[in-house]
Amino acid sequence: MYHCMLFEIGFLFHSLFQDKSVYLLDDPLAAVDAHVARHLFNHCIMGLLAEKTRILCTHHTKYLVDADHVVLMDKGYIIKQGWQITCSYGLLIK
């Protein structure tokens, strides 16, 4: 687990210095604990990349409140999208 966490953090930091206009982030917070994930989200994704287009693929619904647009997918299909999304779990984003 520790090696995987270091790999994810290293990959995210390497991506930060590429200076691209669009960043596709495929669940970079999954391999780290909650404290590290919150720090990476706040300081890297929402901080250093704030002026960039960020596409964050994640299972962590707690980060959706900061999204400009949400796409909810199931088995590879878009089932809902927008700013306010509800599902069987209740309101995901408002």
Notes on the protein architecture:
- By secondary structure, the chain is of the alpha+beta class.
- Helix content is 32%, strand content 30%.
- It has helices at residues 2-16, 34-48, and strands at 22-26, 53-57, 70-74, 77-82, 85-87, 90-93.
- The strands form three sheets. It has a two-stranded parallel sheet. Strands 3-4 form a two-stranded antiparallel sheet.
- Strand 5 and strand 6 (90-93) form a beta hairpin.
- The chain starts with a helix and ends with a strand.
- The relative contact order is 0.14.
- Residues 1-7 have low confidence and may be disordered.
In total, the number of domains comes to: 2
- Tally of individual helices: 2
Series of secondary-structure elements, N-terminal to C-terminal: HEHEEEEE
Strand order of the largest sheet: 1-2
| Average of the residue pLDDT scores | 77
Q: Structural class of the helices, strands and pairings?
A: alpha+beta
Number of strands: 6
> How far apart lie the N and C ends?
34 Å
Give Rg in angstroms. 14 Å
Largest sheet: 2 strands, parallel
Q: What does the overall shape look like?
A: globular
What share of residues are in beta strands?
A: 25-35%
As residue ranges, the low-confidence spans are 1-7
Helical content class: 25-40%
